[in-house]
Structure formats: structure tokens, C-alpha cells
Write a structure and sequence with these properties.
Helix content: 40-55%
Distance between the termini: 40 Å
Largest sheet: 5 strands, parallel
CATH architecture of the largest domain: 2-Layer Sandwich
Number of strands: 11
CATH class of the largest domain: Alpha Beta
Strand order of the largest sheet: 2-1-3-4-5
Order of helices and strands: HEHEHEHEHEHEEHEHHEEHEH
Strand content: 15-25%
Number of helices: 11
Structural class: alpha/beta
Number of domains: 2
């Protein structure tokens, strides 16, 4: 197997090992034990909170894929908790299931009005619970994709990238796998916009995003980092292999003319990129991004010393 074959080997990727995360907010110890037994056997990663305040605290750092809360809680009711979840833009679409006693019909009605997706009566049947959870997660997947994508470039957005990087580094640390992070910036993009107009710039931005996405593996997470910057998370990839992939994308962009309506000549652009690898160069998501950003800055300085203006046209 040569370097490029190894680079694009997608078998046993860490992405397939990242379980879906549930937040459980219950005060009753028996209910907690029953949930724990059912959910962990099903392969979910479960976080527990004994009250709503603790549950909200857990949501600060990680947004789960689904929330289960008992209606009867010691501080704030599960219904009021649901209202708070729906008022927060980051958690507004997260599936929310309420646990309630069969006799409390008013709780079911109040919970559904508050925005709960479903309710389960206690005592519950584990098999029914798992089926309801899976149904809600499948529905949420479609909505989550819409929320996580940058509509302009059709890449993932910055919020999704931040969450995904944390997940991938956590699981990669457990299995002692490398993760390479690539930051990409279009050279002289402001000058390009000023010269040819924002419509031409928007066209090029979309095309560059597509070329980057097509030039990497399906298991690589490619996102719009901001403006004309892109980022790619490459799990199970050494720095050398990540740089090989980046160089291939650079060469394709350098040789490709962008024909935009209204321009009589072909337009050309170049990109700069910075690569950093976990855990060789950084052990946290924050440090990994900083290392890649520094590498990008150094390459842009080097490119500017070699070329003082963007490539405009070639005959």
C-alpha cells in the first residue's frame, strides 16, 4: 500500500466509533438505573443530571443528540426545562422526551405544548423506549444536517466544526489515533473581489469549496471556517499524508480557470494552507487550531514574498 492508498483508506475510521450522546435529567434513582442499563447496552454515550440546573450546566459545553427529562424534578419541572431548551438557539431542535406517570394527563398535554417531541409513561418498557429514541434521532438527523450546513458553500458550518473536532479528538485519544487539521485560505481574495466584483468572488468561493470537498475523503469533515477560510478535519491521517492531499488540491486550483459570466478572460486563484497534527503537535482542540493557523500564516507570508499580486489570467 503506497502513501496515497493509505491516506484514503476509510476502513475502521474513528468517525464510525463516535456514539450518539444523550442527556438524562432524572431525580429518581430507580428510574436512573433502569435508563442507564437500557441506554448503555444500546451503545449510547449517556450524561446524567440530578436536577435541571445541573442539566443546563452540562449543555454549556456539549449539545447532546437527544434529551430525556422527568416531569417531576426538585428545582424546575421538566416542562419548564423543555421551554428553556426550546428558547436556546443551540438546543432548539434537539429531540426532547418527557417521562411522566400514566395518571398525569395534564403533564403530557403541558409537555407537548412546551415543545416536547414525545413522552413515555413510567414504568416504561425498555424496548419501547429505545424504539422511540431511534425514531426521534432519525428525524433529527435531517433537521440537524440543515442546521449544521453553511447554505452558501454547502459545507459544514463553524459551530458544527467546533463540536465535531472535540468529538473526534476525544475518541482518537482513546484509540491513540492521529488527527490532522487543515486550515485553507484563498490568496488575495479581497483584491479579487475589489477587482472583479463580489458576484465573481461568490462564484469562486463556491467553486473552491466544492474542489476542496471533492479532493478529500468522505470521512473528512470539511467546513467553512469564516469568510474565505476553510477547515478540514482528517481522522487517522498523519501530517505527511494530509500535506499530500493539500498539495493535490493546490495544483488542481492553480491549473483550473474560473470562467465567470461577464468576464472576457479566465480567472485564476491560489490557496495557502496550514497543517497541524494531533497528538504530535497539539493535545487539545484549541492548540490544534492555533498550530494550524500559525502554519497557515507562515505559508501566506512565504507566498506573498514570491508573488505580489493574484493570478488574473493566462493565455
Amino acid at each position: 500500500m503506497n502513501i496515497e492508498d493509505e491516506q484514503f483508506n476509510t476502513d475502521k475510521t474513528v468517525l464510525q466509533k463516535i456514539p450518539r450522546r444523550l442527556l438524562i435529567v432524572v431525580n429518581d434513582i430507580n428510574t436512573s438505573r433502569q435508563l442507564n442499563s437500557s441506554l448503555e447496552k444500546a451503545g449510547y454515550t449517556v450524561s446524567y443530571a440530578k436536577n435541571v440546573e445541573e442539566g443546563i450546566s452540562l449543555l454549556t459545553n456539549n449539545v447532546p443528540d437527544l434529551i430525556i427529562s422527568d416531569v417531576d424534578m426538585p428545582d424546575i419541572s421538566g416542562i419548564d426545562f423543555c421551554i428553556k431548551i426550546r428558547e436556546n438557539i443551540k438546543t432548539a431542535a434537539v429531540p426532547f422526551i418527557l417521562l411522566t406517570d400514566k395518571k398525569h394527563v395534564c403533564d403530557k398535554i403541558g409537555g407537548l405544548k412546551a415543545g416536547a417531541d414525545d413522552y413515555i409513561s413510567k414504568p416504561f418498557e425498555p424496548s419501547e423506549l429505545l424504539v422511540r429514541i431511534e425514531a426521534k434521532l432519525e428525524r433529527f438527523k435531517v433537521l440537524r444536517d440543515l442546521i449544521n450546513f453553511d447554505a452558501f458553500t454547502n459545507l459544514y458550518n463553524r459551530d458544527y466544526f467546533d463540536r465535531r473536532l472535540k468529538d473526534i479528538l476525544k475518541i482518537s485519544s482513546r484509540y491513540n489515533h492521529k488527527v490532522s487539521l487543515v486550515l485553507i485560505d484563498i490568496d488575495y481574495f479581497k483584491t479579487f473581489n475589489d477587482t472583479y466584483g463580489h458576484q465573481a468572488g461568490d462564484f469562486v468561493l463556491k467553486e473552491v469549496a466544492k474542489i476542496i470537498r471533492d479532493g478529500l475523503r468522505e470521512v473528512d469533515t470539511v467546513a467553512r471556517y469564516g469568510g474565505d477560510e476553510f477547515v478540514a478535519i482528517m481522522p487517522e491521517t498523519s501530517k505527511n499524508n494530509a500535506e499530500i492531499a493539500v498539495e493535490r488540491i493546490k495544483k488542481e486550483l492553480e491549473q483550473r480557470p474560473f470562467s465567470y459570466n461577464g468576464e472576457s478572460k479566465d480567472l485564476y486563484i491560489t490557496i495557502s494552507a496550514g497543517v497541524a497534527t494531533f497528538p504530535d503537535e497539539a493535545q487539545t482542540d484549541y492548540d490544534l487550531v492555533n498550530k494550524a493557523d500559525l502554519a497557515l500564516y507562515q505559508e501566506k507570508r512565504k507566498n506573498r514574498s514570491l508573488c505580489s499580486a493574484p493570478l488574473e489570467s493566462r493565455k
